[in-house]
Amino acid sequence: MVIITLSSSLVILIVGGFFLMRQATAGIVEAKRASAIAETTTTINRIQGQLRDTDLRTASLYELLNQLADDAAEQSGQYHVLIQGPVSGLISQGVSPDSVPAELTAKVGESNGMWTAPTTVHYTDHLRPDAPAIVVGSTLWSPGASQSIPVYLIFPETQEVATVELLRRSVISVGALMALAIALVTYVATRHLSQPIRQASITASRLAGGALDERMAVRGTDELATLARSMNDMAAQLDRRIGELERLSTLQQQFVSDVSHELRTPMTTMRMAADMIEADPDDPVQARSVELMRTQMERFEILLADLLEISRYDAGAAQLTLEDCNISELVRAEITDVTPLAERLRVPITLSAETTQTAEVDPRRISRIIRNLLSNAVEHAEGKPVEVTVVGNDCAVGVAVRDHGVGFEPWQADKVFGRFWRGDPSRVRTVGGSGLGLAIARQDAELHHGWLTAWGRPGQGAFFRLVLPREADGVIVESPLPAAPSDVGDTESMEER
């Protein structure tokens, strides 16, 4: 605001000063011109009167004109005289005849009257610098009106130039002082106005950072005071609402945790009852019932375990048990576990991995991530191969699981990690799951400061990438795996977080 105001003021002052100087200069020049004409008129009339009263029988015209010119210049002292006599010209001492413009000489020689023109006085003695001037030309008549004699009076404008220069300096000085005063007043005013706004910005930043007890000081009854009251009301509402949400979240987390724990007891009882019923395998209906009950109890146990894990993450109680592990061996073990399911669904699994790719991880959580990725890939592969790749670089180890099944839309790449989210609700699941597997997998990856990303296209399958730092507190500078598979023409890659 200060810069804008100062710039605008300078433009206005410069334009105003320019017009002021222009008007003042024009007024001074016009005043000088009027004064020169009046003085010339008086001088010409006096000299003409002296010529009429002079008897040329006793004095020559040249001598008379010379004397008249010297007398006129000495009496005034404000101008120089140039007379073009009938024999030779007469001019004030030290002044060059070139001081009279040729255009003015032509006008005076062609017609009677009085003419003016701007000029520059050229001095021949080199003691005085050339100066701007006004020259006035008219005509004298010799005694008997037999011959016209051109006369020029040169009025130097030295004082006028000094006056204009003084005025120019004054305008510049006053303009500079006014600009500084305007800048100072603007600075004080904008600081006074912006200080509450700056305080509001600071308060808003602190509120956004979680300091919900922050409040603004309310002063006066203007718009800024209204803003302060509104922000204080907003902060109070946010504090109250967030407190309510935190209490509800705590109750929800406690409820999920309690229910998950409490359901383990009846689950154990049901499993014991199933074992007792299974003791009589001769009844095929009973055996089938036991099998179905066991399957559903396993799914129920998986759901309970996932709910407990989610509640730990929500409560911020999830912790890592770190070990130096060979990621390749963890992947091989999980492929072995999922092989029966893959054989039942006729899905071949291929592994491309180096012998040793070590990282400091929690083996239980990493195995769970790989298990979820493999089971999802096998289920959605539709009988096509599933390719697993394990590679590494200096800072990270990457695991990629690629299937060529149903895939998903690009906009669903982040939604697949949502809780209980399903891309196609009408699709029949062949593997019992809780719908929380990928959500837990991503949180496990983030707990390791790693990445878990997804790429998919309808009919082209899916590509899941897990990238883990080799050290617990390491930073992934460069991923050893691309964000999209290399076997498709799509060059899009999901932006790495």
Write the layout of secondary structure elements.
Layout: H1 2-52, H2 61-76, E1 80-84, E2 89-91, H3 102-110, E3 115-121, E4 131-141, E5 148-156, H4 158-208, H5 223-277, H6 284-315, E6 323-326, H7 327-344, E7 349-353, E8 358-361, H8 363-380, E9 386-392, E10 396-403, H9 437-447, E11 451-457, E12 461-469
Parallel strand pairs: 7-9
Antiparallel strand pairs: 1-2, 1-5, 3-4, 4-5, 6-8, 9-10, 10-12, 11-12
Helix pairs in contact: 1-2, 1-4, 4-5, 5-6, 7-8, 8-9
* Principal-axes shape call: rod-shaped
Order of helices and strands: HHEEHEEEHHHEHEEHEEHEE
Strand order of the largest sheet: 2-1-5-4-3
| Mean model confidence by pLDDT | 79
- Helical residue percent band: 40-55%
Overall strand count: 12
Structural class: alpha+beta
How far apart the termini lie comes to 39 Å
Q: How much of the residues is beta strand, in percent? A: 15-25%
Q: The biggest beta sheet, please?
A: 5 strands, antiparallel
Gyration radius over CA: 52 Å
Q: List low-pLDDT spans.
A: 490-497
Q: So how many helices?
A: 9
Provide a compact summary of the structure.
This protein is an alpha+beta fold and 497 residues long. Helices cover 53% and strands 16% of the residues. The strands form three sheets. A five-stranded antiparallel sheet has the order 2-1-5-4-3, with helices on both faces. The chain has a five-stranded mixed sheet with strand order 7-9-10-12-11.
Structural notes for this entry:
The protein is α+β, with helices and mostly antiparallel strands. It is built from nine helices and twelve strands. The chain has a five-stranded antiparallel beta sheet, with helices on both faces. The protein is rod-shaped, with a radius of gyration of 52 Å.
